[in-house]
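From: lab user (bench 3)
To: helpdesk
Subject: output format question, protein + (2S)-2-hydroxybutanedioic acid

Hello, I'm new to running complex predictions and I'm not sure whether the block I got back is the full result or only part of it. Here's what I submitted:
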Amino acid sequence: MFKHVEPYPGDPILTLNEQFGADPRPGKVNLSIGVYLTEAGKLPAMGSVLAAEAALAQTAGPRPYLPMEGSAVYRHAVRELTFGKGFDGIDRIATAQTLGGSGALKVGADFIARYFPQARVWASDPTWDNHHSIFAGAGLTVEKYPYYDAATSQVDFRAMLAALELLPAGDVVLLHACCHNPTGADLDDEQWRELAQLVKRRGLLPFFDMAYQGFGRGVEEDAFAIRHFAQEGIALFAATSFSKNFSLYGERCGSLSIACGDAGQAANVLGQLKATIRRNYSSPPTHGARIIERILTDGELRAGWQAELDGMRARVAAMRTALHQALCASMPDGDFSYLGKQTGMFSYTGLTAMQVAAMREESAVYLVGTGRLCLAALTAASVPVVAQAMVKAIKTPLTK
Ligand code: LMR
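Helpdesk reply: Thanks, we reran it on our side. This is the complete output you should expect:
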């Protein structure tokens, strides 16, 4: 019966993570998957999360199904985190609790496939690999717009605008709100303003993915693009993830918000999001959402969470600087200036797939095949190991 089922070639990030787990070498370093580790190389359990969980344990009771769209308290709290306190268009935004950022993208993709079946989805070149899989998997055509300029390690903003200018109204433009994955090259606020004008004029439908809020410039600053577009009255999608900024990866907590023209449209859109969710998995789980809503609605816990997140961001920045210094010291004639220009958890190193493979095979240092390196998993101890492995891979002439 299943003879025609072909083997799964694996996922460029998650399968690599499995390979890392199975690698027996003691000094191995995993800079592939986008997770934040502490200076001790461990996944943190944040103090605010533990405190919220302890408080919840006191009142643990029955666990009914959540509504299809998720917990109301969570939805309100995360909508405010995304769009800002005091945003006066809040009643025209439909928000659903989702299974992480991927779940938000999938629910949004299904919604687009149903209500905008002709729309093509335009993703930055490059983008997170799963963007292609999720939108294509929902039956949509995914195309690329120019984004990263390897020569400058920055966004080729003029090429991006020129490509988007040619799109027909109603096409979807996928945008990384902050901490672009994989390149770490973001638009600045002025560029976002200019892009908003283009999107408005051309009648495009922006779909923001914000998986790293708090890891770029700060919790509020990282939401600038979404907030600006929403304030401009542009209809938009915003997928958010709380995997990294609450260190709650396995709880699968995220949200999908759709900014509509008015409250009536938002009610209809929310209804159809509920239907989409029902068709996929009925309703989301409770535990992680309860932790997040507790933190976001309790002044003290929230302040504690924000301070912890600020500390995490500072540690990533310190690792970025440390790696840059180590690389420059080991290879003074090399150009590692890209590290200083990119932001967020990742660096796009420009290493080739063969150099990445050499690092993995010879030095047990794991990067994604595209050359993406997760700075948030570096530690003071691993920086010299990684720098040495990188320099060795760069200097060794590759024969295979
Ligand atoms: C990543 O890009 O490494 C993370 O977002 C994890 C994932 O699901 O790929």
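A quick orientation on your result: The chain has a mean pLDDT of 97. Let us know if anything else is unclear.
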